[in-house]
Design a protein that fits this description.
The termini are far apart. By secondary structure, this protein is mostly helical. The protein contains 5 helices and no strands. Helix 1 packs antiparallel against helix 4 and helix 4 runs antiparallel to helix 5. It has one domain. The model has no long low-confidence stretch (mean pLDDT 76).
Length: 102
């Protein structure tokens, strides 16, 4: 039985998500790692990593939902609609997190 590519993708995304959940790994975020030291002092590292963890967990859940829908018979228009709903949920959650940060 071959390993599903979706499971590999989810596993790869899960590693930084767990790291970010513990407030570590801010240097992995490209925008943060490129900042000057004076700019880094204005950013709350714990909040940044928590938000990145939420994004990654959402992405993992949405990829997994899409994979299960594909595996159990959704195709064509049904799968496209599920994909559109997944993308919209991801965008709405991202916007809500951004609004709550301000």
């Amino acid at each position: 039985m071959p390993i599903e590519p979706t499971l590999i993708t989810v596993f790869i995304l899960l590693i930084p998500a767990i790291l970010f959940s513990f407030g570590k790994g801010a240097k992995l975020i490209s925008g943060y790692s490129l900042m000057k030291e004076s700019q880094k002092s204005t950013v709350n590292e714990k909040e940044l990593t928590r938000d990145m963890a939420v994004f990654l967990y959402m992405l993992i859940a949405l990829i997994f939902i899409w994979h299960v829908a594909y595996k159990y018979g959704f195709d064509g228009v049904g799968l496209t609609l599920i994909g559109i709903i997944i993308v919209l949920v991801f965008i709405i959650n991202s916007v809500l997190i951004f609004i709550n940060r301000k």
